[in-house]
Design brief:
heterodimer; A: 351 residues; alpha/beta; Rossmann fold; eight-stranded mixed sheet; three-stranded antiparallel sheet; 12 helices; 13 strands; 29% helix; B: 602 residues; Pyruvate-ferredoxin Oxidoreductase, domain 3; 4 domains; seven-stranded mixed sheet; six-stranded mixed sheet; globular
Chain lengths: 351, 602
């Protein structure tokens, strides 16, 4: 049950962040997911990322749709408001909340069913709006809560637990997002915390829509032989396109890479993502190169991971709309009511 | 049927849409208004951009009756395609004006009306060089002809043109020329003015001409709405056009140049209402505007808003259903679907504005109620109110007004709490407290459409679940005491009454006047909101014969009354108008007379 609270006992020597908080301060309730679920590793990575960025624990908004993945916002950031919305509709709620308060860090957690079937329209349009949020897809290729139906992310030829073979092509959220003009697209694996944490940190700092598609095997319904989203299959076909480090603005950037094989991308607040290229031809700031790399690896049966595409020059929703830099929710009423004199002036043309 | 008289007449203009007749028709209507004569304009337009029939009907009424009159005294027949029908529409003794540049079919005749041929195209072809101007100016020329027939004040018309084209001098001259051409032609060729001419009066001072959607958009600005989301749908789109327009005028920060508002055009209605819930949840006042099909799509989220107790305001500008129906025709057929939108035991507060003025103030009331009661509020307007031009008392804003944000705790108040529980009935009025995301760690809670207990935690426990839904029903009882009371006109010696809502109002009031003149005294209750309070029950109990007048086929308001109050179906007689045109008083009078005759015969 998601209202179960975690015991608060903690080791006295736990490291603290710039706010003097420990990682435990960023946790939530106890998970009620199956033991070994990839989603719990993602929850832990979100907690770690938020902690490392030293964002106050109540300055997030956690939103989700319906499904196993969408239960997880109850398991992290207990000091922040959460919104478990209806199936496939999290992006619209996030858009509305963000329109009212642009200063929070928005974390949306969705699944492959929630985003790629019932919520495909809202997913696409949140991208198009370049809504400033982290959009996590906990991708296991299967409907867990309804016990094992294929999702739209299931690969063609993939086998369900009872032997049924999926005959339809998979929707790749990353390729879809790049096509739709997303400004930050990454993919990772729930079992690879070293890759996941810097990606999530960069996603939280990116001003605009950050998609993080995370392959997260379902231990109950999609971890068998023949599944292409199992732990075994994913580990065997895992292909990092690029390794990522995140450097906060305060730190000096240390080159941990060989010249010519690495590049940095500067984010709006002055922090940097340091990218170590695995594939020499790959340039994540070039959309065509990003797409061709994904297509090439896909054809070879490889799951490309890492930061796949980033464009820091795109304006996010509020920049496009020229919205007040003070969050609208903090504007006093007298600032938004034009008053009776103005009302009389307005009516001149109706007389 | 009564004869037209001075300042009591109806002019109808039949045209083809896309030919620019709207501004000419508006000019005619506003001229009457500026002369101090009460007017109303009804636009019957197709769901189309160009080439289909469209009509505009202007009723002048010194007595201030602003419903559709149900008669045509002067018809301007500009559309050959509908000419036969338009000819039939004119009352006996009335007038029909047509363009005599081209011959009419000899069979289309009527001996009981006066048919006036005006060489509109010929005059325009001779005086205007471009094809576009020739088409547009025909409309202005017939306004000139009517001005002569009705003895309108040319100075008033001229002044209106000066105002309209203040920044387009090249258009001003052409328009002035066209008006005078029509006017002079009529003076030289016809007997003017007609017996039922217009005469300067004093009934329109302190009034404006406005449509309900503009008023609703303006009201939302004044109510302090900062976030809006919508998906375009006829006939509601102009609510958001108006909101954007007034925000652009009054809400751009003079120092920073930034917008103190955020309007999102959503990908569909499902997303629009999701955005509205998200913004209200985050602490802003946020709304959407839609019509019946949009409410169908929004239903899932409306149920979510009800169960999770998130304020939201929705303007439903009703049109003809079912399904796509007739998008440009009016109806009140979303009463039941709005009241109970969504699955499960869900119910919503409804407000029923009767005219544009009430649309303006309904916006304020809707936001106050939504936040006080933490639930969606649906304002049920309709196409007749929303898109037609109504004469309305000028709008006033009380500068001392402060929005009722309800039980929302901001950071400083949360700080003082030991612990916060989202769904606890602390005050005994069944309304819990809420907090705003990002304000304070102690205020954090988890909003979920799944079963939750009074602490806001997930539950599948039978008692905990029931505790929450029972409290929601008690909150509904609180709502009954807070929603606007009905408007009641009651004389104790009458035992017959009409119950009605929204845009039926003007026709009903006119019908009551007519029946009163015939010696039938009728009381009247106009409902302004759902749920119904005690005064509604009391009014029903006080009458032997009750008519429920509404604009739908299935007597939805009557059903709702029977469902919610102690009244039986057979105690209420439904009077139903649902052909898509606004109702007129004659329809109500006839229905009541027929019913009473039936009673006498029995």
């Amino acid at each position: 049950m998601s209202f179960m609270t975690r015991p608060t006992a903690r080791h006295p020597k736990l490291p603290v962040n710039e706010l003097g908080l420990t990682v435990r301060d960023y946790e939530g309730g106890m998970s009620t997911l199956c033991a070994g679920c990839g989603h719990d590793s993602i929850t832990a990575a979100i907690v770690q990322s938020a902690f490392e960025l030293s964002i106050p624990t109540h300055r997030f908004a956690k939103l989700s749709g319906i499904g196993c993945s969408s239960k997880t916002p109850a398991y992290f950031l207990r000091d922040s408001h959460g919104f478990n919305s209806t199936h496939g509709r999290m992006p619209s709620v996030a858009t509305g909340a963000n329109s009212a308060n642009r200063d929070l860090t928005y974390i949306g957690v969705s699944g492959d069913g929630d985003s790629l079937s019932i919520g495909m329209g809202q997913f696409a349009h949140a991208i198009r709006r370049n809504l400033n949020m982290v959009y996590i897809i906990e991708n296991n290729g299967v409907y867990g809560l309804t016990k094992g139906q294929f999702s739209a992310a299931a690969d063609k030829g993939s086998k369900a637990k009872k032997g049924e073979v999926n005959l339809q092509p998979a929707i790749d959220p990353c390729q879809t997002a790049i096509t739709l003009g997303a400004s930050f697209v990454a993919r990772s694996f729930s079992g690879d915390k070293d890759q996941l944490v810097p990606l999530l940190k960069a996603a939280m700092k990116h001003q605009g829509f950050s998609l993080v598609d995370i392959i997260s095997p379902c231990v109950t319904f999609n971890d068998h032989v023949g599944s292409t989203k199992s732990y075994e299959y994913t580990r065997a076909h895992f292909s990092p396109a690029i390794a990522t480090d995140f450097v906060p603005p305060a730190e000096e950037i240390k080159a941990k890479y060989n010249e010519g094989e690495a590049m940095q991308v500067e984010l709006h607040d002055g922090s940097h993502i340091v990218l170590r290229k695995i594939d020499k031809d790959f340039n994540p700031t070039d959309r065509i190169s990003a797409m061709s790399n994904l297509q090439k690896n896909n054809a070879a049966g490889e799951i490309t991971t890492g930061l796949l595409y980033v464009d820091e020059s795109q304006a996010e929703m509020h920049e496009l709309n020229n919205t007040s830099s003070t969050p609208l929710v903090d504007l006093p009423y007298d600032k938004v009511c034009p008053g009776n004199d103005m009302l009389q002036k307005i009516q001149a043309r109706y007389r | 049927m009564s004869k037209p008289s001075v300042n009591e007449f109806t002019v109808k203009i039949a045209n083809v849409n896309g030919t620019g007749s709207a501004s000419a028709n508006g000019l005619l209507m506003k001229s009457l208004f500026r002369m101090g004569i009460p007017v109303v304009g009804k636009n019957y337009f197709p769901s189309n951009i160009q080439g289909l029939p469209t009509w505009y009907e202007i009723r002048a009424s010194e007595k201030g009756h602003l419903a559709r009159s149900g008669r045509v005294d002067i018809m301007v027949a500009m559309n050959a395609e509908t000419y036969k029908h338009d000819l039939e529409d004119v009352v006996s003794g009335g007038y029909l004006i047509y363009d005599s540049t081209w011959p009419r079919h000899s069979l289309l005749q009527r001996d009981d009306i006066t048919i006036i041929g005006v060489p509109l195209s010929k005059m325009c072809n001779e005086n205007f060089p471009t094809a576009r101007a020739r088409i547009l100016m025909k409309n202005v020329v017939y306004v000139g002809v009517i001005a002569a027939l009705l003895d309108l004040d040319l100075e008033v018309i001229s002044q209106l043109l000066n105002e309209t084209f203040a920044k387009k001098a090249n258009l001003l001259d052409g328009n002035q020329l066209a008006i005078h051409m029509g006017y002079e032609w009529a003076k030289n060729n016809l007997e003017t003015p007609l017996a039922f001419k217009a005469k300067t009066s004093n009934k329109t001072s302190d009034h404006i001409i406005i449509d309900g959607n503009t008023a609703a958009g303006l009201g939302s600005v004044y109510a302090g709405a900062t976030c809006a989301a919508w998906y375009p749908i006829t006939p509601s789109t102009s609510v958001m056009d108006a909101f954007r327009n007034f925000c652009t005028k009054t809400r751009v920060d003079p120092e920073t140049g930034e917008n103190n508002f955020c309007i999102v055009q959503a990908e569909d209605e499902l997303a629009a209402i999701g955005m509205v819930l998200g913004a209200n949840w985050a602490g802003a006042r946020s709304f959407t505007a839609t019509s019946g099909p949009g409410v169908s799509l929004m239903s899932e989220f409306l149920g979510y808003g009800y169960f999770t107790e998130i304020p939201a305001v929705l303007f439903n500008v009703q049109r003809c259903g079912p399904s796509t129906g007739m998008p440009t025709r009016t109806q009140q057929s979303d009463i039941t679907s709005s009241a109970f939108a969504s699955h499960g035991d869900t119910r919503h507060i409804l407000l029923f504005p009767a005219d544009p003025e009430e649309c303006f103030y309904s916006a304020r009331d809707a936001f106050d109620l939504a936040e006080r009661l933490q639930t969606p509020v649906i304002v049920l307007s309709d196409l007749d109110i929303g898109m037609n031009d109504w004469m309305s008392p000028s709008l006033q804003w009380d500068d001392s007004y402060q929005p009722d944000r309800g039980k929302v705790l901001r950071a400083a108040e949360v700080e003082k709490l030991d612990v916060f529980h989202r769904y606890m009935d602390t005050d005994g009025d069944a309304i819990p407290y809420r907090t705003v995301p990002g304000d304070h760690p102690k205020g954090a809670y988890f909003t979920r459409g799944s079963g939750h207990n009074m602490y806001g935690a997930y539950t599948e426990n039978a008692d905990e679940y029931q505790q929450v839904v029972d409290r929601l029903l008690r909150k509904w009882d609180t709502a009954k005491t807070l929603v606007p009371a009905p408007i009641i006109k009651q004389d104790n010696k009458n035992n017959i009454a009409i119950i009605s809502i929204g845009s039926c109002d003007h026709a009903v009031r006119e019908a009551i006047d007519i029946l009163g003149d015939e010696g039938v005294g009728i009381n009247y209750m106009r409902l302004k909101a759902f749920p119904f309070g005690d005064d509604v029950q009391k009014f029903i109990d006080a009458h032997d014969k009750l008519y429920v007048v509404e604009q739908n086929r299935d007597a939805q308001l009557k059903s709702l009354l029977c469902l919610e109050l102690r009244v039986h179906d057979e105690d209420l007689t439904a009077i139903l108008h649902y052909n898509g045109l606004p109702m007129n008083a004659g329809f109500v009078v006839d229905a009541i007379n027929q019913d009473m005759a039936k009673g006498e015969a029995a």
